[in-house]
UniProtKB/TrEMBL annotation:
The entry's keywords: DNA-binding, Transcription, Transcription regulation
Superkingdom of this protein's organism: Bacteria
Taxonomic classification: Bacteria, Bacillati, Actinomycetota, Actinomycetes, Kitasatosporales
UniProt xrefs under PROSITE patterns: HTH_ARAC_FAMILY_1 (PS00041), HTH_ARAC_FAMILY_2 (PS01124)
Residue span of region Disordered: 94-114, 139-159
InterPro entries referenced in this protein's UniProt entry, alphabetically: AraC_XylS_family_regulators (IPR050204), HTH_AraC (IPR018060), HTH_AraC-typ_CS (IPR018062)
Protein name per UniProt: HTH araC/xylS-type domain-containing protein
Gene3D superfamilies, per the entry: Homeodomain-like (1.10.10.60)
Signal peptide, first to last residue: none
Taxonomic source organism: Kitasatospora putterlickiae
Length: 159
């Protein structure tokens, strides 16, 4: 146990700490191997346009039902929900100024790309779709979540 404590204490950031925790958890279950099909499915679902489940299942050599079950067992929710969560995370990263080239419309007091640009880049149909999904996942509009609420406007008044 002291070994893992030292490894975690020596981590040079959150990603390295997460990798150490993953290694620790894997060491607790001898013989455990990650499900490579699920890893590939998560990568495909993480792309802006995602992947259609029938094609993804065929590419992985699985039935749709088996793919759904394996993804749900591994991550805790369905491939469709996983795609929505990953798209939401991608949009937030982009809106906060990460993962981009810095170009485009600047959307509000908080800086960063405009919401229409973020929506298009992250794979939403349009800005309204992004706004609905942000409200669904975060419970507030994107401008509030990103600290871009115009001055003098009560965030609760627009809800």
């Amino acid at each position: 146990m002291a070994y893992w404590r030292e490894r975690l204490a020596g981590a040079r950031g959150p990603r390295e700490a997460a990798a150490e925790l993953d290694a620790f958890a894997a060491a607790l279950v001898p013989g455990w191997e990650p499900d490579r099909a699920v890893e590939r499915a998560v990568a495909a679902l993480g792309r802006a346009r995602g992947a259609r489940l029938p094609e993804l299942a065929a590419e992985l050599g699985l039935s749709e039902r088996q793919l759904r079950r394996r993804v749900t067992d591994a991550v805790g929710y369905s491939p469709k929900t996983l795609h929505a969560v990953l798209r939401f995370q991608r949009a937030l990263t982009r809106a906060r100024g990460g993962d981009g080239d810095g170009g485009g419309d600047r959307g509000g007091a908080g800086g960063g790309p405009g919401l229409a640009e973020v929506a298009q880049w992250a794979g939403y149909a349009d800005q309204a779709h992004l706004t609905r999904e942000v409200r669904r996942w975060a419970g507030v509009p994107p401008t509030v979540l990103l600290g871009r609420e115009p001055r003098g406007q009560d965030p609760d008044a627009s809800s």
